[in-house]
Amino acid sequence: MIKRFVLGIFVLLISGIAMAQQDGKPITVEELQKVMKEKTAGVNTISCDFIQDKHMEYLETIITSKGKLFFDTKNRLRWEYKEPFEYLITINNGQFSISTDGETNNYDIESNQMFSKISELIISSVNGTIFTDTNFDVKAFEGENQYVIYLEPNIAELKEVLKKIKMQIAKKDFSVDKVTMYEMDDNYTEISFINKKFNESFSNDIFTAK
Amino acid sequence: MRVFLTIFLLLSSITFSSCSSAKKFAPANKEIQQPLTGGNKSALYKAKMKVFGNFFSGLVLFKYNKENNDYNVVLLTEVGLTLCEFYCVNNQIEVKKASSLFQSKMAQKTLAEDFGYLIYELGAVKKVAEGVYKNSDKVKYTLGTEAKVQRIRKRRLINGIIVDLEKYKQGVPSSIKFKHRGIKFNMELSLLKVS
Q1: Domain total for chain B?
Q2: A interface toward B at CB cutoff 8 Å?
Q3: CATH number at residue B160
């Protein structure tokens, strides 16, 4: 029994070390925050395509959806799914809107705690400041080509929905390459951001759900 | 007295046997299958729901496991969060797990029942009109071309339901519309992917 226990601890330690080594050397959040702030100071807008894969492990199923994302430093966001369904989220001037199949629901972020949290989560995931969010315990690692950040929720509302978030930030342009959200079971959602364009000018209309 | 008893027993046996035969339906017609048949491994639908005038949307995945002849039905948001998961085996559907965002027991029960209409094996059915069959739970199935189910109807004072199924593609309907009677809840499913 004791042998098994010691073996279990050993396996856990080894796997922990292996994971840390794979992600790179541990760094402090303050260090990462400082580098990110310096390197992204000149970025005012981001647009990109995204591919979202929802993995349901025990059902051996992956649901893939694709879309486009626009973001600017006024914290305005357009998150638009185009395949295999159409679904649009916009965050603009204190309003969170969801539009699909000709129906639009608007939510006031200030007066709605849940949408305020969702809005914060989306914006900070896109602009890479999520690791300064006090709602999460953060661990950061520096690899050869990327930074890897693990965020574990420390408030009940988020804990019930999410186990952890893994964020991969590219060193070449300090933008978010991939966000993986792990749910309480084996399910996880991986969102990859590709074809990134920086500092393109957008029309204001792009941040309005129609 | 003896004559009375004999007549009573004779009448009773006739009455009971006729009752039991009335309950017994003709054997299942093999041409009739549930709308989401086990021939496909999975079907993904976009869901639109109107509940008491409020609009909601999401995705619904029906996953069939041939080995155990069971189904998992997962309701999730477009952004990928699992809201509720149902498990169905032997025509019994139950909630397997539900997120803290989807805790309404009434909503879970209503959805479980709605999804059940699509995946329950039909069992013994009897013909009640041309192209219309009824099972022992008094659910009526109207068949369209190629013996595919076009309409499912359950009459009830509260929570009666009509399900319209259209445009079959790869063996499953592309459009499924649930209209409830007695509760303000309607749902439309549009097929996204089948495999």
Answers
A1: 1
A2: 52, 54, 56, 59, 61, 63, 65, 81, 84-85, 87, 89, 98, 100-101, 103, 105, 157, 160-161, 181, 183, 185, 187, 189
A3: 2.50.20.10
Query: Could you tell me if residue B70 is inside a domain?
Result: yes
Q: In Å, what is the CA distance from A177 to each residue of A42, A114, A150, A153, A200?
A: 18, 26, 14, 21, 19
Q: Across the interface, do B193 and A61 touch by the CB < 8 Å criterion? A: no
Q: How many domains does chain A have?
A: 1
Structural domain boundaries, residue B139: 35-194
Q: Mind telling me how many Å the CA of A114 is from chain B's nearest CA? A: 10
Residues 6 or more apart from B139 whose CB is under 8 A from it? B117, B152, B153, B154
Look at residue B113 and tell me whether its pLDDT is greater than 90: yes
Q: Which residue has the higher pLDDT, B40 or A173?
A: A173
Whether B55 sits inside 8 A of A87 (CB atoms) is no
**Residue A82: CATH number of its domain:** 2.50.20.10
**Bond before A26 cis per omega within 30 degrees:** no
Q: Is B30 inside a domain boundary?
A: no
Residue B31 binned pLDDT confidence (cut-offs 50, 70, 90): low
Say what the ipTM of the complex is. 0.79
Q: Residue B113 and residue A173: Cα distance in Å, rounded?
A: 51
What distance in Å separates residue A96's CA from the closest CA in chain B?
15
CB-nearest to A183 from B42, B44, B81 is B81
Please give the residue range of the domain that contains residue A91: 25-207
The whole-angstrom separation of Cα B135 and Cα B139 is 6
Residues of A in contact with B59 (CB under 8 A): 63, 85
The Cα–Cα gap between A67 and B164 comes to 31
Residue B14 within any structural domain of the chain = no
